[in-house]
Structures are given as structure tokens and as C-alpha cells.
Amino acid sequence: xxxxxxxxxxxxxxxxxxxxxxxxxxxxxxxxxxxxxxxxxxxxxxxxxxxxxxxxxxxxxxxxxxxxxxxxxxxxxxxxxxxxxxxxxxxxxxxxxxxxxxxxxxxxxxxxxxxxxxxxxxxxxxxxxxxxxxxxxxxxxxxxxxxxxxxxxxxxxxxxxxxxxxxxxxxxxxxxxxxxxxxxxxxxxxxxxxxxxxxxxxxxxxxxxxxxxxxxxxxxxxxxxxxxxxxxxxxxxxxxxxxxxxxxxxxxxxxxxxxxxxxxxxxxxxxxxxxxxxxxxxxxxxxxxxxxxxxxxxxxxxxxxxxxxxxxxxxxxxxxxxxxxxxxxxxxxxxxxxxxxxxxxxxxxxxxxxxxxxxxxxxxxxxxxxxxxxxxxxxxxxxxxxxxxxxxxxxxxxxxxxxxxxxxxxxxxxxxxxxxxxx
Amino acid sequence: xxxxxxxxxxxxxxxxxxxxxxxxxxxxxxxxxxxxxxxxxxxxxxxxxxxxxxxxxxxxxxxxxxxxxxxxxxxxxxxxxxxxxxxxxxxxxxxxxxxxxxxxxxxxxxxxxxxxxxxxxxxxxxxxxxxxxxxxxxxxxxxxxxxxxxxxxxxxxxxxxxxxxxxxxxxxxxxxxxxxxxxxxxxxxxxxxxxxxxxxxxxxxxxxxxxxxxxxxxxxxxxxxxxxxxxxxxxxxxxxxxxxxxxxxxxxxxxxxxxxxxxxxxxxxxxxxxxxxxxxxxxxxxxxxxxxxxxxxxxxxxxxxxxxxxxxxxxxxxxxxxxxxxxxxxxxxxxxxxxxxxxxxxxxxxx
Lengths: 423, 351
Description:
heterodimer, A: eight-stranded mixed β-sheet, three-stranded antiparallel β-sheet, 7 helices, 16 strands, flat, B: alpha+beta, six-stranded mixed β-sheet, five-stranded antiparallel β-sheet, about 30% helix
């Protein structure tokens, strides 16, 4: 007969018996959570296709108005940089999804099973192939769901395409931005505690009055001294795009990471999604750059003084953690002037980015207008005044200043126009 | 569980005796000095005693080796009193008790188990405006909850048999089961002042530590925290274990008896060694005399120095050295006074 302590024993809820490595000891551990990720693509009331409705933040049937509450995904812990953490991570999307391959731009994204995709949302190419998505990549742990409805995205994007005097007339009319595709794009979100030790020479300025040749002068004297110290910064939410195949992603603005929720395939219903093509180590390499710059800036601020030199620092990354998150983007392409233009709308904030056509004639006219005052002054006023009155040199200097100012603004305008056309 | 042994009753073939000064109970011979306090003699006594000594750790050190260890220890102290220097010749071998407890532990438990793992981390170094990445490997602990049951025997869990055991365990360390042998009957044995029921809290702590280690092993973890244990302890068996100790005592300059002890197993030495004021005064006198001689000689050399000025330099040098010697003569006295006033009132091994 076993003692009462053992008779009455019940393992805590959710614990299962696991292997013990010592005789006489029974060990229970939390059961591994098996996510049941069956997809809900059909309305249980009318059988029509249902999709994620950003305005309701739920699955919604457009035919019978049925709304299904979104299931909560399993809480996913932040990952560490260990092989084990990567090995433990679930793979694939958690549901069967076809994968679309674009031969034009190389984009690879998974689409809804019912979606009949014939064009690539990023480049507009119709050279696309569809196959079953592989399960090689890590499953996303987090997602920011779409909250900006497609109508709002269309309206915002249309305004954006026609915004400003650089736009060619007719571009807005030609841009049929009614075919936005919602795509979840992969991102790595990093966090770390940075312990930075630094050493530098700190200069403190003071002003002295000296007398030279009977005159007093004020001069700056810098007193230099070595200083060392340590600062610590906790950084969270450093976002690095997980794809290099979507150009202009940085133009979609900042991401509201406070809206991140654990991943569930529900939020993908009705949307495309792309797996990462920038592996975690490469993304972490990129993510560390802004983080170490922040640490160095904090160290410089801590060092103080009026100026610094011979600054050296060692930034120790601790408690590093990563999250693989899907972030929402509305994507549309339109044709103007014989080429495709991409418009990206941040699916969580409504911020617009992408490419838009430029009326180059207007740009060149503006550049001519900017340079004209200087050239006119130099040629039409400077030369005659030099020949007739001998004061043309002053006019030429004035003309040169006008030309330089005009050139600076011209270059800025040209770069801006170029940047709007290209990603 | 414990029983009062009436006066004159024999345990392990010997009479239970008590110290006339500190009251410690011993199994020994009447008229012997008390090796615990060094102040009293053993006489008739009645004491609460449970069982009889069963096992002892053997004396690994011969008496001569113990004397040598003690001599070295005393020699490390400045100007030791002669009583401490000669204490090695008065070393007495005896035993000090502790409990070993065996029990079947039946328990439900819950704890956080820590697993060591390594993480590839980075240190970014900025020098000359250039960043350089240095990969480093960090060791971390992953804590995971575990629960379960335990039903097994634990042998030889140590528990205190003396109320001053904390100080004793610092000195004697943990016993090793395999080294335990039968008790040498002719040596005095200090009797426990903690019977099993009083020693149980200490034993329970020991069991909890042992259970924790076993759970850690069962989970293949490397750390354990927040152990919650609901346990039943069955078939408790208390074994009286003896540690071998050599003790000697001397009287310090203030008249206090101080005991020096050598662990018979490891040779570790413990005890306060007082410094001798007599030796300090003797040294002070030597330095003082030397200083006065130097000053006198300087004065003598000063007279011809009036006519031969380089001799004045010699006078000055002699005077400086003389004053230094006279001033420094105070140092041994101050050092001994400071040291003796800093000696502990008690060594913690006696209640």
C-alpha cells in the first residue's frame, strides 16, 4: 500500500509524466503545446468564403454578415540565439497554403487556397507560378493584424499618387488603385540589453582673455582629460525586414509593435504572406548596427564635456531576444508611361510609401528657373557693368552666390524626383 | 527518544561524566581535564543521551603530525605566548559527535529546475571609428517548472548533535561515509547536547538538501530553486558519528583559558593565539637601548664635530637613527596590545 502523500498526488494541470533520471523520483513537466491550426476559410452559416476584416479585427462573412471571433494564438516566448531555440520553433504556416513565385521580381509569397493569383502584387508581372508552400521556414510567432481596411488604403494611396506639383497630369486617373492585395511581410524584431564600457578624452572649454600688442583677445582653451565609464540601455522593438525581395519596405513607415499578437492562421485568411528570405543571423547582424550606435551615443552623452576625442567603446549584448513577426502591408501596382509602379500602404497605420511617376518636364523647368537668376545677373548685368563702370566683379560675386544656391536646390529637387520614381 | 542516563551508568563501556566548568557531558575517565573548555575536570554527572556511538572517522594524523601542524599554526602569529607555543606537547585526542540520519522520504514536490545552456552573444568594439564584432559565448540558466513525487531512502544525512555545531562544521567539514570506522574505546567522547528530537530541524534541512539534489538529478538539471516539498519521513534511524579532534589549551595573559584544536582527519587548526606582552616588552627594551646608545654616540661625536664639520653629518645621522629606534620601540608593545584586545571572547565551539 502506497503512502497517502502518493495516493492523493495529482500532477498540476497541463503537466505530463516525463522521463526521470533518478530511481524513486517521478517527474512531471508542462506538456508541449501542440497548436491546432486548422484553417477556417468557409463561413459556418452559409458556406461562403470568409476573410479577416480589418475594421472588425475578426473573420467576417461578406454574404451573411457572420463574424467569428479570432482565436488567440499560443503565447510565444521571445527566442534566444541558440540552435535549440531555432530547433524548437514550429515550422511552416500552420495550415496548407499555396505559394506564388514571381519570375519577374523573384517574390515568393503564400496566398489563400481560394485565391486565383495571376499577377505579382509587387511588380505586376503575370509570369507567376503556384506550388504548395514548403515547411522549411520557421513559423511566425507574432503578427500585427490588418486594421486599415482596403477602402481606406485605396483612398489614401490615390491621394498620395496625385500629391504634389511633380505629378504628371493624368497619372491619378491612370492609376487604378482598386486592386490592393493585403500581404503580411516578414520582419525580425530584436531586443537586447546593451552594456557599454567606454573610454575617451573629454575636452572642457573655457575662455581666456589675453593681451597681445596692447589689445585684449578672447581665446578658447580646451582642457583634456581621460574619462571612462559604463552605460546600460535596454532596447526593444528593433525591426529588421525579413525580405530583400520587396523594395521600398522602409517607406511604409514605423510599425506599431504594441499591436503585436501571437500568431494564428486566422489572421492570414484572405491575405497573402511572405516567408523570410533574410535568415536570422544576417538580420541580427543588421539589427545590431543601430543598436550599437544607440549605445555609443549614450556613452558619448554620459562622457559629457564640450568635445571628445579618441573615443573607444565595447558594447556587450546581453539578454538578446528575437521575434519573428508578420507585419501588414497593402500592395498595389499600376502602369503609367509604360512601366509598373508599386504602392505600399502600412496595414496598421495607413502610412503610404512606394513609387510614383514624376513629370520630368516640370522638374527640368524648375531647375532652369532656379539657375536663371544667377546666370542672368552674371551675364546680363555683370559683363556690361564690368565693361562700362568697372564694378562688374562685385556683381559677379553676387551672381555666383545665386548660382550656387540655385544649384543646391536643383540637386535636391532632382534627387527627390529620382527617389520618388525608384525604390 | 532520548533518555536520561543516571549517574554512574555506563555507555560504550564507560561512565558518563560531566565537566565541572562548562557542564559538557563526556564518556571518559574521572579526573581527566575537559577537552572542550580546558577549564574543568570530569566528574560524576547525569546526562540526556540517546543510543551509543557507533561510528567514528579515523585519526588520519598521528599525534606528532598534529603537534607539528599546531606548532606551524602558532608560529604564524606574532610573539605567541609560551603557553600556546608549548600547547602541542599537551594535545589530547578525543571525539566530537554528530548525527547521521537515515530515512525513507515519501514526498510530493514542485520546483523550478535550472538547465545550463550556452548562447552565442556578441561584443561590439568601437575603436578608431571602426566597429568590430567579437563573438562570445554566454552561459545562461533556463528555468522550467517541474513537479512530481519521490519515494526513496536517504542514508547518512548529517544533522547537528551539538548546539554549537555551526562553528564545529566550519572547522570539521562534511564527513565521508566510506571513511567511518569503529570507535576507539579508550578516547574521551563528547556527548551530544542535542537529542534527535532537538536535532530534527537540522536533519530536515539536510533531507531537503538531499531531496533537492536528487530531484535535480532526476530532471537532469543543474540548478534548483523554489522547492516546495510535502513530505513524510518514515523509518528514521539515527546514527551517532564521531569526529576525531586533538585539543590543547593554555592560559592567555588576561587569565582566560583558550583552546587550540587540530582536526584529526584533515589537520586543520582552529583557535585563538594570544601574543606575549613579555616578549613585546623585551623587544621594546632592545630597540630602546639601541636607540639610546646611538643617541649617546651621536652626542660624543658632536664635540669634535665643532672643529671637524663632516663629523656633524655623522652626528645627525646617528641622532635620526637613535630617535627612530627609541620611537619604534613602542611598536611591539602596541602591536601585542592591539592583537590581544582583538581576540574573540569565545571560539564559538563552546556554548
